[in-house]
Amino acid sequence: MGRFFLLAGVAYCLLLIGLAGLNGGLVALSLPLIVYLGAALLYAPDPPRLQATRSLSADRVMPGVPVEVKLTLFNEGARLEEVLIEDSVPRGLKLRDGQTSRVVLLPPGKTLEIAYTVLGARGRYQFQKVQVTAADHLGLFRRQAQLSAPASFVVLPEAPRMRQVAIRPLRTRASTGLIPARIAGPGVNFYGVREYQYGDSLRWVNWHATARHPRRIFTNEFEQERIADVGLILDARQRHDLWVGEDSLFEHAVRATASLADTFLRDNNRVALLTYGAGLTWVVPGYGRLQRERIFQALARAQTGESDIFETLDYLPTRLFPPRSQIVLVSPLCQEDLGTLIRLRAHGYEVLIISPDPIAFESKGLRVDAKHAEHVAIATRFARLERAILLRRLRQAGIQVVDWPVERPLDQAVLTTLGRLPRQARPVR
Amino acid sequence: MIVRAVIFCVVVAGAAATAGYAVVGAWQIGVIGAALAGLWLVALRRGWRGLPSLLFLGFILLAAAGVALPAAAFWAPLCLVAALAAWDLDRFAGRLAVVETASGAANHAEAGVAETAELERRHLLRLAVVAGIGLGLSWAGQAIQLKLNLTVMLILGFVAILALSRVVRLLARESD
Questions:
Q1: Comparing C-alpha atoms, which of A294, A285, A280, A271 is closest to residue A236?
Q2: Domain boundaries, chain B
Q3: Nearest by Cα to A229 from A289, A175, A182, A159
Q4: Are strands A60-61 and A142-155 parallel, antiparallel or unpaired?
């Protein structure tokens, strides 16, 4: 419309000055502009009446897998001489192939298809509106409309495969699994020795103990292996997220949580997920593939956030987790978390912390000039000492801590810290 | 194709203004026409989007200022219409460029090129018709001498201005 006013203003001035000055030349000079304006008015577009539908090649993909978006527009209204169609791609998606905008001529009853391919990092992406701008051929008059064409897809987090994580919760569930249940019964790991009872297999008789006690026979007991309740907690507090270039510590934490969920669910455990950040996101405990999907979908949406209430772990809703179950916290940790974690342990939970090392992560990407190198080195040492003390105090409280430099595979860090399960207890695959 | 058409129109507008002033010996003002054309070509090359509107106004001023000069009946409308066409095409090229930039590199380029070519062809055709009619009317208007008394002229002027202002007001209301 700005162009129209520019031209109309110029034509108006030429006409006015020509008439006032009795100058026919100026009036004649305004005629091309008036003809131009008249032609634009004659072909001014009607409001666009288009119907938009969108289809996606997938509604859930793994990172690095492209998604094809097809937008179909059907013209239900008048002929559109020059129509600009602009599809807005959700932030975070990268256009890999194709066009998101087109300028076309769209006759009535015709269909236009816009196809393009996008790539995205972990997250949920929602397509909403399509902007349509119809203009006359000379581009003076424009009519805009926003068409609704909603669709969404999720890019699930990567979950590097892990071997079994050796956890020993205080309480297990009734079904048979792979976690030592601290109860004697059928199993493969040695648990203890008791007096022989009628019906015990002679193969289990402990001949060494029997030899020491005349007229008494002792038999070996084995530890039962069951499934357990595992509560995963992902720390999504904004202040714990660090960025080095394009790399985020939180993304490593999400991947670790996904790997752990996958591993625990593969071993038939009942797994729940709590995301603790700007608010609480809770995935109720469950088993199997469906639960894996629920957890992965929740992790795909997980974002860091700030909240005055959840700034510390004080408001961790521990009642969501069954008493004496296994809790796995994925967090870079800070000093203020110590008290809460010790209380959690005191309440009878078996706590395992997977802690992505923020100091190693940040110092990796630090660009330090020679002038400040010494100060940075001292500061890094102090930070490392502080963290080492924190981790030691947690370990002293009976909490298992995996200090994980994120450049190392998580599986390796977990194995190094927690050790392997006895050979017999490892799952056969 | 559009860029070539813009260059052609700019050169025509510049040449018309320069020649028109040069013929009557006003070289200094003629140089301004050449300078405006040169600046427009630079703006086209560098992608300065706001400048062509100013340069278009500059050409209108040059044409209006020279309307009383001998032979202005020929070159002034030509200068104005060529500048108008250049301005229009420049904006059209800009609209197409925005789409190309937004869509990035494309495997779908073939379909896009066909559509663009068709749009360009239709745009050029309609602009040629509009510019031709405008130029013809303007030349005819310069040639025809009508003797009108003051009252008729005032009435005509009033009607013209009123009509134009009503159209402007109507469109302004619609744009709200």
A1: A280
A2: 2-145, 148-176
A3: A175
A4: parallel
Nearest-Cα residue of chain A relative to residue B81? A32
Q: What is the 3-class SS of A304-351, one letter each residue?
A: CECCCHHHCHHHCCHHHCCCCCEEEEECCCCCCHHHHHHHHHHCCCEE
pLDDT for B172? 66
pLDDT (average), residues B99-125: 64
Q: Please compute the mean of the pLDDT values over residues A129-147 and round it to a whole number.
A: 85
Provide the CA A154 distance to its chain's centre, in angstroms: 9
For the purposes of burial, counting CB atoms within 10 Å of the CB of A335, is it exposed (0-12), middle (13-18) or buried (19 or more)?
exposed
**A to B CB pairs, distance under 8 Å:** 159
- Give dist(CA B165, CA B170) in Å, integer: 9
Q: Give the A window 95-114 contacts with B, CB below 8 Å.
A: 95, 97-105
- Residue A385 confidence (pLDDT) above 90: yes
Q: What is the mean pLDDT of residues B84-98?
A: 85
CA angle B60, B66, B72 (to 5 degrees): 105
Residues of B in contact with A14 (CB under 8 A): 60, 64
Between B24 and B173, whose confidence is greater?
Answer: B24
Residue of higher predicted confidence among A216 and A174: A216
Record: fold of A229-425:
Rossmann fold (3.40.50)
Which CATH number describes the domain made up of A50-155? 2.60.40.10
Q: Name the token pair of A190.
A: 């040695």
pLDDT, mean of residues B29-33: 84
* DSSP letter assigned to residue A202: G
Binned at pLDDT 50, 70 and 90, residue A420 comes out as low
Domain ranges of chain A: 50-155, 183-224, 229-425
User: d(Cα A40, Cα A141) in Å, to the nearest integer?
Assistant: 7
Picking from B60, B96, B171, the nearest residue to A103 by CB comes out as B96
